[in-house]
Amino acid sequence: MDGTSHVLEKDEIRFKEGMVSAKFGTKNGFPGALYKVMVNNAVSPAEITFKGESKNADRNTLKWVGSIKGEIITGRAPRTRTNKKGCDYVFSGKLIKK
How far is CA 69 from CA 15, 53, 73, in A? Predict the structure, then answer.
């Protein structure tokens, strides 16, 4: 599937204990990523952007880049691979508090 794109089935992105993670990342051996947050209060509703990065045992990297505005989350999680072409996970959806 190198270099291809595909639609993931329903997934869940979690923010817990300072880490961001998703089912697709866990299935590919990526631990949760520490993330940094920036808040833009100059717009209404305020926009929160986040970035994070994790590596799996194969030294592949998953970088999180996203934003939250109101109840909507959007972003991408590019995956780079050692000696292979990477892929780009794109996500969007509505926040659900648990």
Answer: 15, 21, 7
C-alpha dihedral, 68 to 4 to 62 to 19, nearest 10° = 40
Note the Cα 48 to chain centre separation in Å.
Answer: 14
> What's the rounded Cα separation, in Å, for the pair 5 and 39?
31
pTM equals 0.83
Q: How big is the chain by its Cα radius of gyration, in Å? A: 14
**pLDDT (tens digit per residue) in 3-46:** 555 566 788 899 999 999 999 899 999 999 999 999 999 999 99
Query: CA-to-CA distance for 87 and 42, rounded, in angstroms?
Result: 33
The 10 Å Cβ neighbour count of residue 32 is 19
Edge-to-edge, what's the strand order for the sheet holding 19-22? Answer: 13-16, 19-22, 33-40, 47-55, 61-69, 72-81, 84-94
